[in-house]
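ok here's DUF3150 domain-containing protein, seq below lol
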Amino acid sequence: MSVQEQNPASTLLEQVELVVYKTRLVTPNRDTGEGGRSGSRIEKVLQSCFDPQILRPLGKKKMEAFRLCRNFGTKLEGLGAWAVAQRDTPDLLERLGRIRAEWDVLALELAESMSTKVEQWAAQHPADANEIRALAPTRQEVLESTSFFYTSFRINAADVKDGGGLLTELSGLAGQALREFADVLRDASLHKATGASYRKGVKEVLRRIESKAKSLAFLDPVIAEVASMLESTLALLPADGIIDGPKAVLVKSLVDQLLNPRRLASHGFEKLAERTPGQPAPSNGAGMPPATAPAMPAAATDPIGFDAASVYSF
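and the structure came out like this:
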């Protein structure tokens, strides 16, 4: 029996491209060679050779890449890759390319300034100055240790030997996507919002989730429902200004339900008829009090083998 016949989740592989990005970052901590082993106890002495804060700009680029991939796709943890609809992959790769170009500029600036940063750190820690200078990374070491890599590839389902459970994980991608929708809302602090009113920035957050839900609607009907509900809600919101009154109630109810991915996966969006007047909304699972707004109405409407020619590195 073929893999496709064994598990219909394998058909998802025909609709997605897998995108991976990896970063390497020079570390300020260097092994002094001191320490040792005593019985079962192992001690190692590390020397900090420069202020870790100078790595923050590169750290921000790494986080930017993560959020970008999360906006476009859903994480396939077993492979450390993002499953992205094939039609959206070129746009994602172009944006990752821009992040890498900015990363490379920052990495070069870090390498060029490293000797100065080391001297500044040594001046702040005179007792360790000799060790700091001796162990500090050189310009070339910084360049070799600080990199941003990304690639995309496709997997032919017929080539998958699924002893490791890849297809099982694929079948759970819809739930993973719902959890990522909730993460986006928490990143924007919408789990803390009282719901009395919202600034127009909430629409940009909801649009990002809508765009991702539309591109991944083939994963499961509940993802398609998220896209439809967001589209109909966004159409009702004012183009500018504060969102308050009944429209704020609408946003609050929608956000609360998106913050509860487990319930959303099993029941979908709650309909008006499913809640009696005054009954609170289900808990959002984030430790926040339940919403008292009415529910939104329903919207209308291993070893893995792959062809080397389908791998694109940049």
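fwiw The longest strand covers residues 29-38. kinda neat tbh
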